[in-house]
Amino acid sequence: MLGVARDADEKAIKDAFRTLALKYHPDRNKDPGATERFKEIAEAYAVLSDPKKRAEYDHRGFAGVSGFSPEDLFGGIDFGDIFGNGSWGGEDFGLGGGLFDQFFRRRSGPRRGRDIEMVLDITLDRIGRGGEETVRFGREAVCAECGGSGAARGTQPRQCTECHGTGRLTQSRREGRGNVFIQQVSVCPACGGKGVTIEKPCPACAGSGKMAREESLAVTIPPGIEDGVALKIPGKGEASPETGGRPGDLYVVVRAAQDARFTRSGADLWREETISIPDAVLGTSLTVPTLDADASVTVPPGTQPDAVLRLRGKGLPRFQDKGHGDLYLKINVHVPERLSAKERELYDKLRDMGGRAGGR
Fold first, then answer.
1. Euclidean distance between the first and the last CA atom of the chain, given in angstroms as a whole number
2. Is the pLDDT assigned to residue 251 strictly greater than 50?
3. What is the pLDDT of residues 119-132, one digit of tens each?
4. Among 20, 114, 148, 260, which residue is least crowded by beta carbons within 10 Å?
């Protein structure tokens, strides 16, 4: 599961787990199945990182560890030590105690709704100033007609008699000589895992308790926000699949839109300027755009092709820090492909002067 050799040491197991967990953690990986894959990876680490559990696994395979409860598996693991209490998109990464609580303890209430992720392309000018941007998105929200119950007005859902409202059926058995206790949990077929049955469905949502909705809202963009940062808007994700559950969250991933003037590199901006050979030799003055206003730049005599000039503080604000980045000008020197008779005569004279057409 972790892709390590059978004789891998503690460090190799820890490194493999950290790499795979960062890859499949649902806060980072929105692919279907990422959550289950993440749980499998964590369970594999819990077994392989403990000498006694690892010995049981090596000796008896999965049967050797199937009787462990989540508390037995994860109770002694310090996830904060492994991950350094990192963050993703400015939010707590959910590791340490949060990982154990989120993925391995029994749920004490209705499941929350699915999170939504969307990309917002914004201009460099907006990134430079900060401010509000309007985002539009679609989601499944709680049905206003039935309040999410799925039942028509004047009626109420009834507790499922098969699963007694849990939405799950549990079967337990012992295998072998009674030393291995196996518990199998499945979705209740009578209520489809909802825990309730509806005799008269809501006509507005056909009993689902949810309705598709197009929404728009204003998102505050912090000055200098970096590409890929996800802004979290709580409660604007999908509605919970269970009555009374909290909706998921909306994550707006910010990305800098293409700009004809500049290329972004963190808080720095890059721009290319093309000058003629005489201007490169003798020097010149350029007027270039910045995020604030046009600026005058002196190109010194003898400037070489691909030289870079720096305009301090003319870049973007540094995200969550003080100061600004810089604006860099890369100088291209244009070599003419066609010459007039007069131009050729002048270049010939320069060459005859010692082959120093480029100057001293």
1. 66
2. yes
3. 999 999 999 999 99
4. 260
Say what the pLDDT of residue 94 is.
40
> Tokens 């030289």 appear where?
307
* Rg (the chain; Cα; Å): 32
Q: Which residues contact 330 (CB under 8 A, 6 or more apart)?
A: 270, 271, 272, 273, 306, 307, 308
Number of other CB atoms surrounding residue 274 within 10 Å:
10
Say how many C-beta atoms besides its own lie within 10 A of residue 9's C-beta.
Answer: 9
Whole-number Å distance between alpha carbons of 95 and 231: 19
Q: How far apart are CA 38 and CA 94, in angstroms?
A: 12
Quick check: is 163 in a domain? no
Q: Which residues contact 217 (CB under 8 A, 6 or more apart)?
A: 134, 135, 233, 236
CA distance 358 to 351: 9
CA dist 131 to 89, 250, 305, 317, 326, Å? 18, 19, 39, 13, 22
**Which of 185, 147, 139 has the alpha carbon at shortest distance from 166?**
185
3 burial level (CB within 10 Å; 0-12, 13-18, 19+): exposed
Same domain for 118 and 100? no
**To 5 degrees, how large is the angle CA 332–CA 336–CA 341?**
155
**Which range of residues forms the domain containing residue 320?**
263-352
Per DSSP bridges, beta strands 268-276 and 327-334 are: parallel
- Measured at the CA of 278, the angle between CA 275 and CA 279, to 5 degrees, comes to 45
**Partners of 329 in beta bridges:** 271, 309
The 3-state DSSP class for residue 141 equals strand
Token pair for residue 70? 């989540």
Contact 124, 262 (CB under 8 A): yes
Give Cβ neighbours of residue 258 (< 8 Å, ≥ 6 apart): none
Do 247 and 135 sit in the same domain of this protein? yes
Phi-psi region of 259 (alpha: psi -120 to 50; beta: other; left: phi over 0): beta
Higher-pLDDT residue of 264, 24:
264
Q: Please indicate, yes or no, whether residues 138 and 245 belong to a single structural domain of this protein.
A: yes
Q: Are residues 249 and 336 in the same domain?
A: no
Q: Around 232, how many Cα atoms within 13 Å sit in the side-chain half-sphere?
A: 13
Domain match, 15 and 61 both: yes
